[in-house]
């Protein structure tokens, strides 16, 4: 459906623009990039507050917010390896807690503001909240020199896009695997509530399912990061297990007939999300090396943004044809299982 494209574009452009934002991080540093990202996000929300049409929201919210969050996202990934080596996976896991924790803490507040102030003033308030992002960016203390970056990688950073990572066959296979799984990633967020409502579950209970995803993901991310630091050679196997686990959950979700059963599915998705986001960057480090991490991350998120954006609208298109979300979840389960098989 057209509204689904707005949120999909914002998420997709966050990753689509990573190839450019990682270059900005290398050239201007994480501090300047994070501060710029905070300002861009604020401008995106302000311009969306009084958007007269859905089409304009595609630009102001979809593209504008995507750019701002990409700047913040890439700057955060860029600063972590400068300060953490022994517990790097745990650091990445903690660094990506913003999404689940933000969902838990900000959603009730934003709903309250929306009921009291309406859409436009709520968007203005969110824009004001982004001063916190700017202040947080100021805490990114620059590091004069990173000894783990070799001279060759430094030259590539100055020249621009580094395509040498594609000579690494493991990295190419890693890209194909993630590009396969990402269309399924946003489907629960976009369609789980409607799936529950189609099964006769109340609107309040259906919306509450998203909290189960966020709580489980927030709890599991640090655990996954810590465990993968203890057994670094098993990181790929951990992620493979999560893929098969979530694939099974997707196949079973349409068969659920009660709130409790769908809550179990929501928790299963939270576990999968925790594994994916806790290990995606550190696995890339293991494959390409820390000195090529900016290029690897930039290309990885740029390429997977295309299947990521198409996932939820495709699921909506399936519903328009079949009048059932079950097929979308079945297809999602098959896609995730295929991605897991690619890791062998």
Automatic annotation (TrEMBL):
Gene Ontology MF terms: transmembrane transporter activity
GO CC terms in record: plasma membrane
Main localization (coarse): membrane
Membrane topology: Multi-pass membrane protein
Source species, domain of life: Eukaryota
Domain Major facilitator superfamily (MFS) profile: 169-344
UniProt keyword annotations, A-Z: Membrane, Transmembrane, Transmembrane helix
Segments traversing the membrane: 6-25, 32-50, 56-80, 92-113, 119-140, 171-192, 204-224, 236-256, 262-285, 297-319, 325-343
Entry keyword Metal-binding: no
Location in or out of the cell: Membrane
Protein name: Major facilitator superfamily (MFS) profile domain-containing protein
Organism: Nematostella vectensis
């Amino acid at each position: 459906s057209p509204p689904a494209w707005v949120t999909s574009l914002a998420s997709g452009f966050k990753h689509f623009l990573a190839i450019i934002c990682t270059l900005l991080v290398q050239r201007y540093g994480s501090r300047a990039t994070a501060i710029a990202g905070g300002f861009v996000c604020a401008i995106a929300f302000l311009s969306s507050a009084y958007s007269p049409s859905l089409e304009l929201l595609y630009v102001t919210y979809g593209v504008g917010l995507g750019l701002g969050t990409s700047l913040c996202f890439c700057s955060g990934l860029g600063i972590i390896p400068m300060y953490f080596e022994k517990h790097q996976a745990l650091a990445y896991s903690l660094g990506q807690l913003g999404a689940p924790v933000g969902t838990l803490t900000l959603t009730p507040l934003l709903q309250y503001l929306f009921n009291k102030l309406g859409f436009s003033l709520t968007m203005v308030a969110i824009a004001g909240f982004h001063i916190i992002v700017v202040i947080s960016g100021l805490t990114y203390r620059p590091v004069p020199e990173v000894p783990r970056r070799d001279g060759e990688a430094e030259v590539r950073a100055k020249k621009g896009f580094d395509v040498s990572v594609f000579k690494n066959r493991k990295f190419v296979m890693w890209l194909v695997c993630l590009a396969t799984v990402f269309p399924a990633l946003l489907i629960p967020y976009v369609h789980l509530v409607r799936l529950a409502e189609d099964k006769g579950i109340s609107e309040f209970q259906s919306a509450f399912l998203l909290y189960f995803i966020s709580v489980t993901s927030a709890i599991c991310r640090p655990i996954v990061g810590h465990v993968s630091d203890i057994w670094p050679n098993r990181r790929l196997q951990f992620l493979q297990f999560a893929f098969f686990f979530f694939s099974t959950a997707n196949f079973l979700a349409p068969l659920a007939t009660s709130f409790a059963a769908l809550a179990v599915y929501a928790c299963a998705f939270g576990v999968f999300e925790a594994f994916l986001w806790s290990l995606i960057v550190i696995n890339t480090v293991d494959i390409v090396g820390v000195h090529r991490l900016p290029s690897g991350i930039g290309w990885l998120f740029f390429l997977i943004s295309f299947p990521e954006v198409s996932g939820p609208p495709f699921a909506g298109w399936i519903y328009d044809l079949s009048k059932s979300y079950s097929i979308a979840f079945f297809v999602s389960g098959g896609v995730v299982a295929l991605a897991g098989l690619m890791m062998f």
